[in-house]
Amino acid sequence: MVTTIRQIQGFRRHLLAEIADLTEEELNRIPFGCPNNIAWQLGHVIAAQQMLCYARAGLPVLIPEAFYLPFLTGTRPETVTSAADISELKRLAAATLDQLADDYTQGKFLSYSPSAGILNVYGFPVTHIDDALSYLLYHEGYHAGQVRYLKNLI
């Protein structure tokens, strides 16, 4: 699974490169007919990884609540994400996966609660950390595609 974490890190690097040249306004723009923006997409991949890997394992999430709750599944951007918060999201995008790799190697995810939500929506059972990492690989790719789509609209 360390290979899967490296692949997820590759998607994150791609995502960060894709948005590197965008302004704060562009990252916050919600194109007509779309439910969210690129800043939300970035926050969401971080929050989803924290939920699936840490919260489901009974561990505290590693990010402040302000970078977690507003980006969980079912949320939408309710405020403009500031330039400072965008910088922090970019930092967290890399740092949280580096920490995940360390924590996985140290065996911190032995206790895990199955995620019925993913099973109900996608039919993919997520019953332990290795399932979560496999799902996250798909999830990161999906949201990288969403970012590219939104970028083309702005």
From TrEMBL:
Domain DinB-like intervals: 10-147
SUPFAM superfamilies with a match to the protein in the record: DinB/YfiT-like putative metalloenzymes
Source taxon at top rank: Bacteria
Name of this chain's protein: DinB superfamily protein
Organism expressing this protein natively: Siphonobacter aquaeclarae
